[in-house]
Design a protein that fits this description.
The protein is α+β, with helices and mostly antiparallel strands. The protein folds into two domains: about 325 residues, P-loop containing nucleotide triphosphate hydrolases (Rossmann fold, 3-Layer(aba) Sandwich); about 120 residues, no CATH class. It contains eleven helices and 21 strands. β1 and β2 form a beta hairpin. It is globular and about 70 Å long. It starts with a strand and ends in a 19-residue tail after the last helix.
Length: about 450
Amino acid sequence: MLVKVSIENYKSFDKREELSMISSSKMQGNKSHRVKIKQTQLLKNAIVYGANASGKSNLVSAFAFIKNALMEGLSVSSVNDFCRNKQENKTRESIFELQFTVGDTFYAYGFSAILSQRKITEEWLYELMQDGSSHQLFIRKGGNPPTLGDSVKLSAAEKSRFTVYSDDFVGRDTQLFLMEMNRGKKYAENSKLGFFTEAFGWIMNNIIVINPNIGISNTEAYYNDESLDNISRLIQTFDTGVTEIKTRKITVEEMGKMIPAEVVQSIFAHLKAQMQMTNLPSIQMTWRVEGGFFNIRIRENSEPEITTLVLKHGKSVFDFNFSEESDGTKRLFDLIDMLLTDRPDAVFVVDELERSLHPKLTEHFLVLFMEAHEGIRMQLVFTTHEDTIMDQSLFRRDEIWFVERDADNASKIYSLDRFKERYDKKLSKAYLEGRYGAIPVFRQFSFRKGE
């Protein structure tokens, strides 16, 4: 589970800011929203409010940035991702860190980089202990070879193997060592280097980022009739007019007529990169892009298998393409996998969850999500403007967060829990009145009328 995310000198975040999923010990309401791991109580939800351009989307973007950096290294486009509010930030380190659990083990993984130079300056992985101490698992500083912590005791064979990997990695300033230690490498089940695969696997497979413009998932939901029937019944509860969902096989050429060619190329490039990294004989993924919804399965030495959605409306005998649906219905298909998944320990990070949805649909979705995953290690972090769900019967105070720009135009993150509100307080009203900040501040404007 996600414990904490920290960001510094990234986009609108200047100084170090963090969002924590550790619950407040003073709050007793909504106990089902917590999961206890060892002695730590972790929250299952974080709802993030803020004005337009406050930095909410940049918080979501940070999760995607960490995953992309692990997969592909620092991209050319990242050279402008430092906080450009100050000149000195161009040559200042940007810092990213995730604290999370795999099973009952607590990890802290992070890295620092001078983004304008595409140069990783430090990278680290620690095991966090319940008494507040930590054990260093590996660290990499500057251009030196990565080294293991004193607590990692290897056999002579594994030590020799690690030394080769470490020495070979020197000079790869844009790449992360955690990814290198998972690139086609296999470890024995009891290997002391297993933490490399545990940490990497959790970040890459368990953090699922969804934004309003593109949805990506590796769900099984659209690959068999039984789950399609479940989706059909579930989508009917949202009153969209859709009564049945099926899939239809299409070719790569047909797909290219439905969406731009460059989008098709980027999709297949992404899938091939995933296959190369994981050494799997096949891979499948579901993509929702503007104008289309596609399930793609690639096997070695075989043509891609592609299906798209076909939807039925009421008693109509005609089929409807996904592109013909309303924006709200399309948005539901971005989110519906979150209700059906049985993937353990997933963290869904969603930007603008309520995008194109009626407030009642948003609330209905959240209630279903909580019911579907009650008692399960499943977390939801999302940004929103929807004040009607800012309700203490739906969320705990320590699950509600705000992002606000300061006088220097830098984003700050803070929790509602710092405001000591009564349990009967109407939170949405107080928020819109500006009690908690994180709302638009308008300036005066006068229209100049001609003589």
